Amino acid sequence: MSRVAGGPELPLRLLEVFAALMRERTTVRAAEALGVSQSSVSTALAALEERLGFALFQRRNRRLVPTAEALSLHREIEPVFIMLDGIEARARDLRSGSAGRLRVLATPPLGHTVAPVALKRFLDGRSQVSVDYDVRRADSVIEAVAFGAADVGLVLGMENRADVEAEVIEAAAMVALAPPDHPLADAPRVGAADAAAAGFVGLHAGSRLGRLLRGAFVEAGAPYAPRVEVRYCHTAAVLAEAGLGVAVVDQFTARFVDRRALVARPFLPAISAPCMLLTRKEAPPSRLVAAFAEEVRRAARDCR
Q1: pLDDT tens digit string along 146-190?
Q2: Structural domains of the chain, ranges and CATH numbers in brackets
Q3: CA–CA separation, 30 vs 187, rounded Å?
Q4: What is the dihedral sign for C-alpha 182, 188, 189, 194?
Q5: Which residues are CB-neighbours of 107 under 8 A, at least 6 positions away?
Q6: In this model, does residue 123 exceed pLDDT 90?
């Protein structure tokens, strides 16, 4: 047999017809399975037998009976078609967003609240999907998305950046948390001056929320002198529960704390801290990214 110039000696299409004939044992049923005409199947079989130099089937009562050579050849090519079926299935999964790997980064307030809920829903029914997930500071999340090291980033608020796409998932303002027996627990709202007088837990100025909190005290003309200063809102909520003062945190953290241990009140001056979803600039989102983003939107709405 001579090799066809620029192609394999046995074209895959001819072997596909052969495999169908081995399954169906008639040219009519093989043609139906392949979605072609019966004459096309007969032509392909004749072409394959000519290339091979031996007969593959004998006809008995309108059925095709494979020869010993056909059985031997089929044993060799069957793994190839199993592999191709697997490739086709994986391609379908990728098209539908049910297979692949997703890289997600989030800042702690969202990484410990909205993101876990979204991840659980996203992964349900997607056994072929894996997620690389981590919680980091806002600057690290933004840079990772900008440089393509992460597919999705979740942050609370953000200055305008030209190197990432930023979508506001849920508008939110920061709130004051206090134990039910705290003097400010029954107040309709807690101002910066109220928190300063009663004692409060502050946020490090190295974080964006910390800088915003300091700015609110300055705007209100109240002294920023926290009894304890921490980096993360969740830590501030824990300390407020322990009686170390009022904690001013994002609404997402507030919604996930034990409502029996802490009550939430609006904080003034208002501090905007919306949930934002970041993706890479000028890179169309994959089906996985789009599916996960939808679960983030749903999880954020459920936190209302």
Answers
A1: 888 899 999 998 877 888 999 999 988 999 999 999 999 999 999
A2: 12-95 (1.10.10.10), 102-169+275-302 (3.40.190.10), 175-268 (3.40.190.10)
A3: 78
A4: negative
A5: 135, 136, 137, 138, 141, 154, 155, 156
A6: yes
